[in-house]
């Protein structure tokens, strides 16, 4: 009885993991029970050819797809209904061309994650020409990163050199290892309504031009991984924490992660935060986080008191500390 009810309920058959499906007959039976509803598919490991063929027959029904970079070539197909895509590096190092190809095949894609420790540049992949530039009009969320505690993803950021994303609202890049002029060029030609921006792998990058191009940003996270670089002179000089806030007038939430191993000028940080305009609630910075990635000493008691007073006076939520606790 219960098995009959389950078999006749299409919504129970829309999510499939092809690691657990051994042959196409089982897959076809499963897909038939879904009765044309949008599909959520997860692919992993080596896929049997008959399973690949069966999957491609139903590619037009895919709404969410998670797969490995090794599957990109064999699964090449139009994904006309796909809205969310996750591609993970396991055995095959990805190339930007392969990723561009799947983006082209998914015109309705809204959210995309490419997760890899390393990417092959066109020359490393033996390609004589770079990927053809491409505009994706629907993509709103893009993540270029890797799994793991260090979140480095070598060469991933090069993808934005070939992309134009006019609908982009959220961008996460775990290793900004391209020239900031090229990153600014991407933002300039995309002119996106960007609201959330997360950049890692930063050193002494000059982000002023890039940030000037996205005044709509309300949530900003910057991770400075070079232990020799103190980011605060960069951020306070005509940048994110400049007194006039000309770059990001709508910024509400700011998180800075730093690996700087020398003493931090906490007094300078407090003065910069205290000069942030609060003329209207709309313009107010609501949260500030400073997360220490190195063995930096905690602020002195007088600095902690000053941070707490600033919180009281401004209404700003402030976090200064490590992953294990807030000093404030």
Explained architecture:
- With 328 residues, this protein is an alpha/beta fold.
- It has 2 domains: 1-194; 195-328, no CATH class.
- It is built from 9 helices and 15 strands.
- It has helices at residues 2-7, 24-34, 49-57, 96-104, 180-190, 208-212, 232-236, 266-274, 301-314, and strands at residues 15-17, 39-42, 62-68, 84-88, 111-115, 134-135, 141-145, 163-164, 170-173, 196-202, 219-224, 253-258, 287-292, 317-322, 325-326.
- Helix 6 links the parallel strand 10 (196-202) and strand 11.
- Helix 8 packs parallel to helix 9.
- The longest helix is centred in the last third of the chain and has 14 residues, at 301-314.
- The chain is elongated, with a radius of gyration of 23 Å.
Write the layout of secondary structure elements.
Blueprint: H1 2-7, E1 15-17, H2 24-34, E2 39-42, H3 49-57, E3 62-68, E4 84-88, H4 96-104, E5 111-115, E6 134-135, E7 141-145, E8 163-164, E9 170-173, H5 180-190, E10 196-202, H6 208-212, E11 219-224, H7 232-236, E12 253-258, H8 266-274, E13 287-292, H9 301-314, E14 317-322, E15 325-326
Parallel strand pairs: 1-2, 2-3, 3-4, 4-5, 5-7, 6-8, 7-9, 9-10, 10-11, 11-12, 12-13, 13-14
Antiparallel strand pairs: 14-15
Helix pairs in contact: 8-9
